[in-house]
Design a protein that fits this description.
Bound molecules: zinc ion
Largest sheet: 6 strands, mixed
CATH class: Alpha Beta
Helix content: 10-25%
Distance between the termini: 38 Å
CATH topology: CNF1/YfiH-like putative cysteine hydrolases
Strand order of the largest sheet: 5-7-10-9-11-12
Radius of gyration: 17 Å
Shape: globular
Number of domains: 1
CATH architecture: 4-Layer Sandwich
Structural class: alpha/beta
Length: 267
């Protein structure tokens, strides 16, 4: 299976940030998004510099400053994020959701690995260091989702669950949904020596050699199975582990920051 829209996007350097733009998202009216690399923040080594995850060992003040820089860059009123636990809990922010903004820092949504909303002005943030952030946009129903999908997310088919929730809660038609997969660990580096124990057999044909897997293709196949059109799915094509100049990578460094992928509707 190959994606029609797969290509390696060149980074854009803006206001100190390294941003990865995907044309499929650039053409959606009213959408603001940022797939950020590691540059443009205030955190010192080894979190240099746009670290957005509190659990890393970095100073909390730096993380709050970094998230505020992102919020301003994308022009949102709030940034909302979850405590990501490699599960498949989905947080749905609709008009009945009790949003509790804090004096500083992002709105905390509790445990979860995916966020869906149809409300404007809120940037949904997923934090990654090798895992995929998967942006899903229904431009017709004006619904967006941001999904944290590592290999455990693939095993649980979290992207399929999110598409189903967009259908049931917001009447989204999967054929209209546009998807983008962020920089994340590539087939060059996604080695799973014990794959027989952790992956279902259905994944085994996504191996590119003895024990390296193409996780991008796994997510792609799950999105297509959920009803998305291949032409609506973009993969950034960047491996986070191979490019320390642009990305944090947990596999490469262990002690490192996490990058932000943020999406939302403008007011
Ligand atoms: Zn690699």
């Amino acid at each position: 299976m190959t994606c029609q829209r797969k290509f390696v996007v060149e980074p854009v350097f803006k206001n100190g940030f390294t941003l990865f733009r995907l044309t499929s998202l650039d053409n959606i009216e009213g959408l603001s998004y940022g797939i950020f690399g590691r540059s443009g923040g205030v955190s010192p080594k080894p979190y240099d510099s746009l670290n957005v995850a509190f659990s890393t060992g970095d100073d909390e003040k730096n993380i709050i400053t970094n998230i505020e820089l992102i919020r301003k860059e994308l022009d949102f009123e709030f940034i909302a994020s979850c405590n990501q636990v490699h599960g498949k809990k989905i947080v749905v922010i609709d008009k009945d959701f009790p949003l509790r903004p804090r004096k500083e820092g992002p709105i905390f949504l509790g445990d979860g690995d995916a966020i869906i909303t149809n409300l404007p002005r809120i940037g949904l943030m997923i934090k990654t260091g090798d895992c995929q952030a998967v942006i899903l946009v229904d431009p017709v129903g004006r619904v967006i989702a941001n999904v944290h999908c590592g290999w455990r997310g693939n095993v649980q088919n979290i992207v399929g669950e999110v598409v189903r929730t967009m259908k049931t809660d917001f009447s989204s038609n999967p054929e209209n949904i546009i998807a983008a997969i962020s920089p994340s660990i590539g087939p060059c580096c996604a080695e799973f020596i014990y794959y027989r124990e952790i992956f279902p057999e259905a994944f085994w044909h996504f191996r590119i050699n003895e024990n390296h897997f193409n996780l991008w293709e796994i997510t792609l196949s799950q999105l297509i199975e959920a009803g998305l059109s291949p032409k609506n799915i973009s993969i950034s094509g960047w491996c986070t582990r191979c490019h320390p100049e642009y990305f944090f990578s947990y596999r490469r460094e262990k002690r490192s920051g996490r990058m932000a992928t943020v999406v939302g509707w403008r007011g």
